[in-house]
Amino acid sequence: MKDKYTLGLLSFAALIISGIVYLLRLLDVPGGILPIISEGILLFVVLVMAWEYVRRLSNTWRLIYYILAALVIIGFVFGVGIKL
Predict the structure, then answer these.
(1) pLDDT tens, 7-20?
(2) Has residue 14 been placed in a domain?
(3) Under 8 Å between Cβ of 67 and 43
(4) Which of 9, 30, 51, 74 has its CA 20 to 30 A from that of 1?
(5) How many structural domains is the chain composed of?
(6) 72 near 47, Cβ under 8 Å?
(7) Is residue 2 a part of any domain in this protein?
């Protein structure tokens, strides 16, 4: 991993945005697009870090990663999954 600083920054940004979204939910204020942005950043960071782990494993695990990553990305794009 060459650029851990950027991933750390994105993780922190997602944490801040998620915190704001949860606070807005407590106050019954709609978060607008913030939950989508937060989930997208978190998804990106998790996929990158998971790839850093899986790339050293066998091709079977890489295939499993690709399948799961595709399913998660499709779920994110089409709005299927956990709602913040």
Answers:
(1) 777 778 888 888 88
(2) no
(3) no
(4) 74
(5) 1
(6) yes
(7) no
